[in-house]
Each structure stands twice: as C-alpha cells, then as structure tokens.
Amino acid sequence: MNFSIYDFTSFNQWIDQFLRSVMSPFWAIAVEMVIIGLAILLFYALVGLFLVYAERKVCAFMQNRVGPNRVGPYGFFQTIADFIKLMLKELITIKNADQLLFNLAPFIIIIASFMAIAAIPFAKGLHAIDFDIGILYVIAVSSLGVVGILLAGWSSNSKYSLIGAMRSGAQIISYELSVGLSLLTIIILAGTMQFSAIVEGQANGWFIFKGHIPAFIAFVVFLISSTAETNRGPFDLAEAESELTAGFHTEYSGIKFAFFFLAEYMNMFIVASIAATVFLGGWMAFHVSGWNGFNHIMDFIPPFVWYIGKTFFVIWIMMWFKWTFPRLRIDQLLTLEWKYLLPINLVNILIMAFVVLMGWHF
Amino acid sequence: MNSIFTYFTEIFHAVKSLLTGMKVTGRYFFSPWEIVTQQYPENRKTLKMYDRFKGEVVMPHNGNNEHRCTGCGICETACPNGSIEVIQNKIEMPDGKKKRIIDKHIYHLSMCTFCGLCIKSCPSDALAWGQEFEHAVFDRAKLTKILNKPGSSILKDIAE
Amino acid sequence: MKEVINLPVKNIEEEEYHINMGPQHPSTHGVLRLVVSLQGEIVKSLKPHCGYIHRGIEKMCEKDTYPQIIHLTDRMDYLSAHINNHAVCLLVEKALEVDVPERVKYIRTIVDELNRIASHQLWWCSFGMDMGGLTCFFYGLRDREKILDIFEESFGSRLLHSYYTPGGLMMDIHPNFQKGVKDFIKYFRKKIKDYDDLLTGNIIMQLRTKGVGIISKEDAISYGVTGPSGRASGFACDVRKHHPYGVYDKADFKEILGTAGDTFERYMMRMYEMRESMKILEQLIDNIPAGDYAAKMKAVIKLPAGEYFQRVEAARGELGVYVVSDGNKTPYRMKFRSPNFSNLSALDHISRGVKIADLVAIGGSLDYVIPDIDR
Ligand code: SF4
Ligand code: SF4
User: Fold this and answer.
1) Are C156 and B17 a contacting pair at CB < 8 A?
2) For the whole model, what pTM was predicted?
3) B112: CATH
C-alpha cells in the first residue's frame, strides 16, 4: 500500500503537537477550530463559485451553446463577477415580512450545509471530524436546511413563497426517508457508519461493485432522492420558476439571495460527496484485486483528486438530470417517493441483508 | 400477480423514456461541434448580412454626391407612421421657371417599422435598404437622420 | 405590538386565496394577468385580465390605407406574422375581385407553412419551459433560427416581415429560397426526433399532461376554441381544409383530429402539424410557377362600400378579418377575430380543479400570444 505520501494523518498530528507545545490545550483546540473553520469556509466559497460556473457550462453544452465566455478565459471569472454584483445589490426590505426570521433563514440554510461538510473525508486524514456515526450526523444535519426553506417561505409574507416552502417541506421530509434507507443498505454492507471506516472498507473494490445489484439499486435511489432533497430539477418544485416565479426565495435579493444560491450548490456538492464516498470509494483509488501493476499506477493519483473527480462525476449526472427532464408535479413527486422509491428501498435492504448474510458480495 | 407485473413494466417504461431523453442531451454534451452560438462582437469582421436585410432606410449617393430624390413627398404619404418628413425647396431655374427640389429628407429611425412601403412607392427609386444594424445610441436625437447628404444634388437624368 | 384583526373565519373548506399570475410572470408568455383563486394548490377559478398590451390596432387601422394595414397586422400575432398579413391581403383581393398570379399563391402558401412551423417550434420551446425542461427552449430556438434565416434572406427581416401586400408580394423570393427550404426540411426531419425523445415520450411529461385540462368537443365549439387546440378535442376547424385559400386545395395534407382534448392531445396536434406542414412544403416547393410576383393594382386602393370578411388558419387557430368600408381608401371599421382571445376564454372552464403546475401546462398548450389577445 502506497498511501503514505498522501496521508494527512501525521501532518495533522504534527500541527496538533506543535500547537499544544506552545499554548495550553484549550487554546490549542480553539486555534485548530479557527484554522479548520477558515479552511472550510474558503473551500466552501471556492467550490460554490466553481459549481455555479460548471453548471452553466454543462447546461450550455447540453443546449448547443458555449455558455459564459466573456469574463476571463472561457468565462472562468463570470461567477466572481456575478458574486460581486450580488454583493452590491440592494437588500430590499419587505413590508410586513417577519424581519427576524426573514433575515435568519438564509443563514440557517447555509449553516446546515456548512455543518454537513465537516464530516466528509476529502482524503486520508483530511476531515474536520471523524464521527463513528458520520452518516447519521450528515443525514441529520442536512435535513436542517428545510427549516431554513420553510422559514424563508413563511416569513416573506408572499403567497408564492409560501406555496414553494410548503411544497419543499412535503418534498424534503419524504425524500429524507429514501436517502436514509439507501444509505442504510450500504451501512449493512460496510458494517459501520464511520466515514473513514467506510472508505477503508472499499480499498479492495468500491461498494457499488462489491454489493453489485442491491448496491447499484441503492445508488440509483440515492441519486434520485438526493436530487430531490437538494431541490434540484426535475424536483425543483420549491422554486419552480415557471409556476411560482422563484418559490421560497422570491422576495430575497442581493447577498441574501446569493446565500440561497450558494447553499443550493453546496448541498449538491455535499450529497454528491456522500454518494462518492459511500458508493464510489471516496478518496480510495480504483483498484482491481490481482492487478498489482494497475493498482500501483492508480495509487499515484492523489486521493484528493480521486475524491474530487468522483464527486464531480456525480454532480455532472445530477446536472444532466436537471437539464433533461421536465419538472414533476407535487402529487407525482410524492407518488414517486411513497409508491416506488420507498418499497423498492425496503425490499432492497432485505436483499442486501440477505446477500451479506450469505456472503454473496465480493 | 398481474398488478405486480404492471408495476414493474411501468417502472421499466418510465426509466426507458427517461434514458432516451438523457441520450439526447448527453449526445449534444459530447458533440461541441454542434454548437450554434454566433459570437457576435468577435465575428463582426466576417459577419455579412443578407443583401436584402432591412437595417435602415438609406438614400444611395453616387460618386459625384448625387442622389435620385426629386422631393415629391410620395414616400412621406406612403409611410404608415410618419417616419419620413420631406422638406422641399423651390429654386428658380435659369429659364425663369420655379422648380421643386429636396431640401431635407428627414428619416426618423426610431419610429420606422421597416415595412418598406416608402422604398416601394418611391417613383424614382431614390431609397434603398441599408445593412447597418447597430443602431444603439445614447441620444435619441441621433436616430433622426437626414438622408440626403450635405451639398448633394439630384442626378441629372432624373431631373430632366 | 400590531393589532390582531380577527377576520370571521368561514368554513375552512371554503377558504380560498387569490394570487396574481402576471402581468409579470414567467409562464404567461407576455403581459397577461390571471387572477387565480386557489385552495391550497388547487385552482378553484380564474379570471384573465387582458389589456396590458392593448395598442389599439383596430382603431389604428382605420386611419391607414390597406397596404399600410399590413405593418400593423404583423404585430398582432407576431409569431404568425405572414399568416395575419395573408388574411388582410385576401380580403382586399376578394373585395376588389383581383386575380393574383399563381406564383403569388404558391409563394404565400409556402411561406405561411414555414411560418406555421416556426411558430410551433417556438411553442414547443415555451411549452417545454413551462413544464420545467429548460433545454427544450434552446433546441426549439436552434431549429427555428434556420427558418428565420430563410426569411431573412428573402424578405430582409426575421420576425415582422410586411412581405405580403394587397395584390401580391413586396418582392420576389430570393433565388436561394427553394434550396433553403429543402435543406431545412431535410434538417428538421432529423431534429424533430429530438423533440420526441426529449419531451413527447418522457414519462414525466406524459403523466403531467394526460387527462389534464380536458375540453370536450361541445365546449370547444361553444367557446370557439380553434386551431390545434380545437382539433385536439375533435372539432374539425381547419380553415385550410374547409375553406381553402392560396393553393391549399392543390396540396395533399390531412386534418388530424384528436379525441381526448387534454393537454397532451393539444401537444400532439402541434407535433403532427409540424410534420404535415413539412409535407405540404415538400409538395409545393418544386412547383412554384414562373410569373409576376404581384398583380397590377391601382396606386390608391379603395374598397367598394360594403362589409367584407375573410378567414385564414393562423398558427393558433382561425383568424378572421372583418372590414366595413365606406368606399374610402381607409376602412371605416376593422375588426379581427383573433384565435388566442377565444382560446383564452376557455381557460377558466378547463382549469378548474387542477393544480397550479397543471394550469401552467394548460396555458402552454393553449399557446396564447398576448399581443394577439389584446391587439
Ligand atoms: S425619396 Fe422618392 S418618394 Fe420620397 S421624396 Fe424623394 S423621390 Fe419622392
Ligand atoms: S420603412 Fe415603412 S415605416 Fe419605415 S420609413 Fe419607410 S414607410 Fe415609413
């Protein structure tokens, strides 16, 4: 195994020891937290900006267009220009809106996605915190976002926003179930909820290959339901711009709107990284047991690149969904979940449990 | 049993129809040569409008700064929305007869609907379509144009 | 503290609230205002308020001579500008009993059909967008651009052409016209498959449209719903077939009638119609006879005193032009029976009890163009 050059564990320990040697343990922890917070914040902003750009380019290519190409080479700085524009825009105060909740909602959404990022391992040893119940934590935290959406819709005092918020309430709460259950399928296979252990478990083959049919079904279900959970097309009923103008964020402007916008993309990034970590091996390189030469070549690619590559692949699939399908109607959305995804999921868990019991997985 | 069968065939057909759709967008994603966008300000050099393109109404002048307009004012009456104003002048000819010539042929581009009636109705073919289409200006007054160039005169054989 | 006003709460079941869809709303395709009365997400009733883009075209026509009216009818249903103009030209020719050359009839028919395809392509774009599939919009526009290029080459403009004039055409077609049309048919026969793959066959789209927004045949007739929307309900109302003008009697095409009358059927009607139009084009394009591009007309066209009516099949339904003339060079009164206005009138009837999302889809399938409703 050739991990050592890309292993961050010793690096982290070294920083920790250094800080502890110069200050008291309390301050050492505090400084570490600040460093991690800043690092994640930076990462968050960069990924958010890049994803907005990527989405535009991807949709442009799917639609026979060239997409943004004015600001910087290939329009690379377009989103930065847009961000500056959104910062400078007026924050419109809505009469009769509940000011406190109205201003709070964007932060709730963004904090929820911010918290979820903490548990995701980007490379060996490169994660803010490694819970033994990592998956449970991520599911729990990412479902906080719906509170923000509901508050945004309710406090704007606009009917369009309220309809959007109500839709997304119904939507996210039901799809949470499928997300959880499809991850449960893999937890059965992996035998752990800890992200680092899940990734280590895929050293000799990703779970989507190891668990073959049930894992694949779980992956598809996860993709569908996580697209729905992040309110992206074809499940973007909460925004549904042709019906509700902009749904729950109709009344927001300027930087508050930008928060919603950024949070949408970050949520997409988070679910994609969960998909990549749980199903596609996270930062683990692609290994075929027996082909040692091949495996060594694969190990030379840094784990972080593997992780980012897989995540963007999943994101690309989600974009592909969005730019192909028309939007569902609210009752069809719930039918899809309760009549199709949920039963399939439950049966799938049974099958997976059976497969694991019999040792039929690889 | 039958209902279970329909349940699964339904899913199968649904997934198939979704995949057909994804095939279309996926195919275009991987065929960038099908991109149809015209990169406008960059291709300005090579951009050629069709020769019938209706950009604006112009009055062609020849090399001697001569045009064909007699100042009859027919285009003014033909125009449905008053985009053309013809201001005439009377000059005394050497033989003592008074003759009507054009003083100013005023064309309000801002009001023109590009119907082409003025060009069609002009008895001496003095007007034509110009291919210029970049009409954006900062001052509305710039859209009012005088079509006969300063110092221009009427072509000899039309005048007779 | 704000004062709390206790409104008398009626029976909760009856609680309705209103939202204004429009005048600025992404799905009304312009400045139409729908006051929708909702219960939860269910539409209880709705009231269209039109007039936001009323320009008084009928009144303006009264001061214009007949050749000048053309530039106004262009701007009614701007997506089928040629067809609107055709109606006025036919009316004037009928009143004056002018025989237009065969060549003019052929060209007009071909251009009308091209215009119909272009209009349906744009409808497909915006319908896809109403359903939430944004990619449709670009595919439709991409193919429509090909037609607009043909138009631009021959008539100089892309949307508002003012190409027909009473008695004939403004100018002859461009020498490349025939080749352009043939190339377009070859191109579009391939690309229309994308439309089917992307939207027609899509399960989401089918579930959302089938059985939604049904107009029965009786309702279609009594509301005057014409065009593809009327034919989806089984109302045989194709003016091209039943009162042929141009050279439609020489072309072999089918009037396809639907049965269900729902949103999906209205969608399919237009998809069929694009294919039928291509068939008409294929039959006519090679047979344009030589000849003049305009009949000899008097310099000042005066219609004899009396009343005249002419109808044509515009892309959205039956367009009627009614003129009262007092023998002057301008009409005494001009009235348009615009297809969109009648189609819109059925919207309240068909959208009761559907969800907001369906209302948007129904609106898309009726394909209203607001400037034609308001005129
Ligand atoms: S442009 Fe033609 S119609 Fe107009 S005034 Fe001159 S000669 Fe007469
Ligand atoms: S093109 Fe039509 S509107 Fe424009 S100036 Fe000529 S007659 Fe008037």
Assistant:
1) no
2) 0.85
3) 3.30.70.3270
Write the ipTM.
0.82
> What would the DSSP string read from start to end of A231-283?
T-TTS-TTT-HHHHTTGGGTT--HHHHHHHHHHHHHHHHHHHHHHHHHTS-TT
Strand order in the sheet with B84-92: B84-92, B98-108, B144-146
Ligand 1 pocket, residue B75 CB under 6 Å: yes
Contact list in A for residue C132 (CB cut-off 8 A) is: 233-234, 236, 240, 242, 325-327
Query: Does the beta-carbon distance from C204 to A325 stay under 8 Å?
Result: yes
C337-362 pLDDT tens trace: 888 888 888 888 888 888 888 888 88
Asked if residue B119 is part of any domain, the answer here is yes
- Whichever domain contains C135, its CATH number is 1.10.645.10
Distance in Å, alpha carbon of A225 to nearest chain C alpha carbon:
16
How far off is chain B from A65, nearest CA to CA, in Å? 5
Q: Are strands B98-108 and B144-146 parallel, antiparallel or unpaired?
A: antiparallel
Residues B88-128: pLDDT tens digits? Answer: 877 777 776 777 777 888 888 888 888 888 888 888 888 88
Task: State what percent of residues in chain B have pLDDT above 70.
Answer: 96
Site to probe by mutation for ligand 2, drawn from B77, B86, B112 as the one with most ligand atoms within 8 Å of Cβ, is B112
Are B56 and B21 within one domain? Answer: no
Cα gap C223→C20, rounded to integer Å: 24
8 Å CB contact of C68 and B17: no
- Structurally, chain B folds into a number of domains equal to 2
Q: Ligand 2, atom 6: nearest CA belongs to which residue?
A: B118
Token pair of B78 as six digits: 């033909």
Nearest chain A Cα distance for residue C27, angstroms: 5
C-beta B124 within 6 A of ligand 1: yes
Q: Contact B23/C197, CB-based, under 8 Å?
A: yes
Among partner residues A245, A328, A332, which is closest to C26 by beta-carbon distance?
A245
For residue C317, report the phi and psi dihedrals to the nearest 5 degrees.
Answer: 145, -160
Q: Does C46 have pLDDT greater than 50?
A: yes
The Cα–Cα gap between A118 and C8 comes to 50
C100-155, pLDDT tens digit by residue?
888 888 888 889 888 999 999 988 988 888 888 888 888 888 888 888 888 888 88
Q: From ligand 1's centre to the CA of B144, what distance in Å?
A: 17
Q: pLDDT digits over C203-260, tens only?
A: 888 888 888 888 888 888 888 888 888 888 888 888 888 888 888 888 888 888 888 8
Sequence-separated (6 or more) residues with CB below 8 Å from residue A244:
A160, A161, A163, A164, A250, C356
Q: Are residues B75 and B132 in the same domain?
A: yes
Is the CB of residue B84 below 6 angstroms from any atom belonging to ligand 2? Answer: yes
Give chain A's mean pLDDT. Answer: 81
Q: Does A323 touch chain B (CB under 8 A)?
A: yes
Domain limits for position C313 = 55-374
Q: By the 8 A CB rule, do A280 and A314 touch?
A: yes
